[in-house]
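Final report, results section. Input specification for complex C-07:
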Amino acid sequence: GNSVTQMEGPVTLSEEAFLTINCTYTATGYPSLFWYVQYPGEGLQLLLKATKADDKGSNKGFEATYRKETTSFHLEKGSVQVSDSAVYFCALMNTGFQKLVFGTGTRLLVSP
Amino acid sequence: GAGVSQTPSNKVTEKGKYVELRCDPISGHTALYWYRQSLGQGPEFLIYFQGTGAADDSGLPNDRFFAVRPEGSVSTLKIQRTERGDSAVYLCASSLPGTVEDTQYFGPGTRLTVL
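Structure output:
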């Protein structure tokens, strides 16, 4: 079946630190991969996506590269801000299907 | 334009009661999705509509759950004989498949509490 595994949180960082949130997946076929973010009190928002192997998605200083050989899609940012504090969800959508399969989410807390 | 809206934002009901949750998708989006998010978990897929028909209802947990989208726009998720385990945030999303807008845009959710 299809599944997504994320590192458990919370991840606690100081402002300007480097961020990595690990995500690995299991899927039949060739899924598209996504990172969604949920800021406090807000709905889920798409952060970035990649649709095929070796693609890099990027947005707001965040990046993730679709690594087929390691079935991974790790989220990175070079310098986090307090405003990046949120819950981050990794997700996949398999070819021919329209449903997203989400990981359990990773809470990021950034202190000044 | 307006995003996905959901009503009510909060719903408290008693075990055994019937509830309806409403979703208004982004105008023009042909696809509509329902997900359920339990505390500390990621959203779980329930059902997907393309137009008026349910293209994939494989995520509905049992026959107490039913959803409709009679005119291809607004959708209602209906839960009969609610149980405490149904307590969760119910999320709706919409998209326009096959276009550059083929991204699922989520609403703020309806928090359902079954007492």
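The interface with chain B takes residues 4, 36, 42-46, 49, 89, 91, 97-105 of chain A (CB under 8 Å). The first strand of chain A starts at residue 3 and ends at 6. This concludes the modelling results for the funded period.
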